[in-house]
Amino acid sequence: MTRFVLVLVGIVGALPAASAAVAPKASPAQAAKARADRLFSQEVRATVATGNEEFVVTATSEVKLNGSPCRFKDVPDHAEITVIEVDKDTREVIKLHFRTKK
Question: What separation in angstroms does the CA of 43 have from each of 13, 31, 86, 101?
């Protein structure tokens, strides 16, 4: 009886590994293409870039105030920038996080 229980536990323990071995993986080329499509898709700009602007905030930019998502126009003037991530080619803001002092 003890052997039967041990064999049963061994089979049940091996099932997740066996099912993972036969699961198809996404190829790295497909994953890279999907990421590129997301990054380089057409974006609706919130402002139009001119020659004198350094950065452009788009409609797809991630803007957060004190950890909560918000719109760029709702950020108070006294808020300070804690995180900024910019695309070096297009000068478009990808992430922009603000914090207000309490």
Answer: 48, 21, 15, 32
